[in-house]
Amino acid sequence: MASTHLIRCIQRPRATGSVSARLVVGLLLASGVAACGFHLRGEANYAFKTVYVNYPSTAPITTDLRRSLEAAGSAKVVAAADKAQVVLDVNSVEDNKHILSLSSGGKVFEYLLTKRVLFRVHDAEGNDWLPTTEVLIRRTYTYSDTEALAKTYEEERLWRDMQADAVQQIVRRLQVAKKPVA
Predict the structure, then answer these.
(1) How far is CA 4 from the centre of its chain?
(2) Rounded to 5°, angle at Cα 37 from 176 and 71
(3) Which of 24, 126, 132, 167 could share a disulfide with 120, CB 3.0–4.6 Å?
């Protein structure tokens, strides 16, 4: 009987202190996040109202760029260059896969995947809003013959992630594109 009373006395302060400690930790985390300047991404603001993506419409990067530009910001993607305030020229998209390292038995142990995108933004008069810019993304992954199917899936996932990362970098760089001073 005395032991149950003692246990209740010990548990009550602990429960109250636990709620207080959680509250204090929550407030400290919230103030830490606010102090570092963190804020949600929000809507992208561009210096232009309309944009045309000049790259084959069947290319996956074109679809992803159009989708991201329409979803993320104030600019509207148009279907013809003559209706656009600026043209986003995607000059090249290169995907490369290189052997990074070999095992002691001479088999491939690691690969390096590289995605390189060159693009520029200009208006109808040819004035550069953003000169030719490069986005370079690299990823490495280990390889094993015994897990070939899983490693193939991992490589495909890495290519998709690299594509999404390249598109997001292009969208962020478009936010700093400015109308050239005449």
Answers:
(1) 56
(2) 45
(3) 132
Q: Is 7 within a domain?
A: yes
Q: Are 158 and 141 in contact (CB under 8 A)?
A: yes
Q: Are residues 68 and 143 in the same domain?
A: yes
Q: 3-class SS at 59? A: coil
| Non-local CB neighbours of 51 within 8 Å, separated by 6+ positions | 69, 75, 76, 77, 78, 84, 85, 86, 87, 88, 121, 174
pTM above 0.85, yes or no: no
pLDDT tens for residues 85-139? 999 999 999 999 999 999 999 999 999 999 999 999 999 898 999 999 999 999 9
Can you read off the two tokens belonging to residue 22? Answer: 């959680």
